[in-house]
């Protein structure tokens, strides 16, 4: 594999935080919106994508004719392999966002179960409205996704004394117990109070939480999505939430953002945050640590971590 010598970063600040770069690695600034600074496009071997709105600039990757590696700053990589092309490797920031996203998942569950969102509305209206709400303790939680973020959510749920069922792509056992198959999702949904989706988006997971799964959930169940919006069928979820049968707490939606006139915005059974799961204070030090490690690997001619498309590293 030809050595990777020039790596572009989406802004000067990120490049500065990683400087000095390892010997043999040259840094450049390319936001993928205009031409890169101080380097020709043909010189760029590796590209670090921007963290926010990366999908809007993926088309620019085709301008880097010698592209060998694309590094995301997100756990998700929707559309990146296609934009990079099969000859380039794609690496994600898996692990960087796990703790922060798990925090938000638990926060959304608690807020919706304990009626904190309703209390905020009551406060704004000056209403004192005590009610008995469901506790997280003793809830039956169905966790869809057993990767890094799913593992961190499971860890944080343990002290709350929940009954946790984990679901992955296939049935198996690991060091933490049983993992059920996604094919069993409908039957599992019928016996759980909270469904948390944190699985990546793929052909297999697109609208995996569909009308049949949602209909199987008990009355009053809560659907939480901190993974990818299209994993949940928005139309089917909206119908269940507007009927009053289900509740939802969503950090990701489909489409994203929801149109301003979408009825979920105004439903008291819905709580929506603007895709901020990983966008917390933990992000910057953790992404810098990961990128520094990736650059060291590249400088040494080694395989970088978190590859979801191997490209030139396939034989390495």
Structure description:
With 316 residues, this protein is an alpha/beta fold. 27% of the residues lie in helices and 17% in strands. It has helices at 12-18, 80-84, 98-113, 116-125, 148-157, 185-189, 211-216, 234-242, 283-299, and strands at 6-9, 26-29, 46-48, 69-71, 89-91, 140-144, 163-168, 172-174, 177-181, 194-197, 222-225, 247-250, 270-272, 307-309. The protein has an 8-stranded mixed beta sheet, with helices on both faces. Strand 11, helix 8 and strand 12 (247-250) form a beta-alpha-beta unit. Helix 3 packs across helix 5 (148-157). 39% of the residues are buried. The mean pLDDT is 96.
SSE arrangement:
Blueprint: E1 6-9, H1 12-18, E2 26-29, E3 46-48, E4 69-71, H2 80-84, E5 89-91, H3 98-113, H4 116-125, E6 140-144, H5 148-157, E7 163-168, E8 172-174, E9 177-181, H6 185-189, E10 194-197, H7 211-216, E11 222-225, H8 234-242, E12 247-250, E13 270-272, H9 283-299, E14 307-309
Parallel strand pairs: 1-2, 1-3, 3-4, 4-5, 6-7, 6-10, 7-9, 10-11, 11-12, 12-13
Antiparallel strand pairs: 5-14, 8-9
Helix pairs in contact: 3-5
